Amino acid sequence: MKKKMSAIRSFFRFLLKRGMIERNPAAGVRSPKAAKTLPRFLTVEQAFRVMDSPPREEARPKTLKARDRALLETLYATGVRVGELASMNVGDCDTGESAVRVLGKGGKERVVPLGRTALGALGEYLPVRQALLAKSRQPDSDALWLSQSGRRLSVRQVQNIVRRHGTLGAGRGDLHPHAIRHTCATHLLDAGADLRSIQELLGHSSLSTTQRYTHVSVDRLMEVYDRAHPLARDKNGGG
């Protein structure tokens, strides 16, 4: 609809400049607000299957299996944006403190904790990363995530890795890094994390952005309630 309104305004501006009309009837018409869609996310079971997908690829080289698993685990553990992940350097990881430094929007820096599983996956990847680095004539020695040719992974390459394992692990060929970001936030919220903590973790400037995840969790809570609560079962014709 926004594109259609833009085309109509442009058309009337053209007519106005040509003197074919005296005023632009579309000048005061506002474009409709785009509907806010709820984020798609993985269930806990689906998330585990996606994270476990890389080691199960028998024909995949050991270096790439270790890289893919560490990349997916880091995405799920931190909820970082795909651009933030792709720009990570080796020096950003502090395994001793179980944290990673993230450069977010507007150059804002934040420190995000890493869970044990993500740390373990990184511990397996970092030694084999050297093998990837050695393959490049112009290696990016700072980059954390390397391609098969030893160069820094691009955003598109990260998206392809996520889509690959989304398909293999959970039958989700549409899986995108942003969906894993939503998944991280939703699972944290379901486990009892407060919104302020999730806001800081994700690097949201506004709490209202983070609050979108409450709608997801409330919907899921209502489903559980309707299935489990005796009064809800009676109301729905059960008992």
What this model shows, in words?
The protein has two domains: 1-36; 44-206, Intergrase catalytic core (hpI Integrase, Chain A, Orthogonal Bundle). The chain is globular. The longest helix is centred in the middle third of the chain and has 18 residues, at 116-133. Strand 1 and strand 2 form a beta hairpin. Helix content is 54%, strand content 5%. Strands 1-2-3 form a three-stranded antiparallel beta sheet, with no helix packed on it. Helix 2 (44-51) crosses helix 6 (155-170), helix 3 packs across helix 7 and helix 7 packs across helix 10. With 239 residues, the protein is mainly alpha-helical.
Task: Write the SSE topology.
Blueprint: H1 2-17, H2 44-51, H3 62-78, H4 82-86, E1 93-94, E2 99-103, E3 109-113, H5 116-133, H6 155-170, H7 177-190, H8 195-202, H9 207-210, H10 212-228, H11 230-235
Antiparallel strand pairs: 1-2, 2-3
Helix pairs in contact: 2-6, 3-5, 3-7, 7-10
